[in-house]
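Hey team,

Filing this mostly as a record. A colleague (T.K.) asked me to run one chain through the structure pipeline before their review meeting, and I want the input and output archived in the tracker in case anyone asks later how it was produced. No errors, nothing strange. Just documentation.

Input sequence:
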Amino acid sequence: MRLTDADYEDLLALRTGLRRFLRWSEQQAEAAGLTPAQHQLLLAIRGHHGADGPTVGEVADYLLLRHHSAVGLVDRADAAGLVKRVRDPEDHRVVRLQLTPAGTKRLEALSELHLEELQRLALRLPSAWRGLMPRQPLHGLESRV
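Output structure:
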């Protein structure tokens, strides 16, 4: 595979767009009275597939943190009234994380803003997204020429 100038331009456009989105996201979290890490924690808890909530270990995996760092983040969010620890009803050795009403309210407001911003970003970067599609067909996906 030989890379073209357009390939590099697409990579730059995508990375720049992603970095701008992440910086914008951090600013939105701070404006809502959260640290960016707290926002990510709330999203990891709410976005977890299980109804009972994730464990601290699962949150650490979602956030790419070491377990002890995730524990500190959860401790601070718990003290701020954003999350709570709940014993698993089937296995009392397991502690799960759930959002409090205050955590839910803040996350919902931020998530609405984020989804709107992602829609705007997708409109501004269509050529970068298309340009990074595989050159060979992948199970029915469009390929780039």
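Quick notes for T.K.: The chain has a mean pLDDT of 89. Helices lie at 5-31, 36-47, 56-63, 67-79, 101-124, 126-131.
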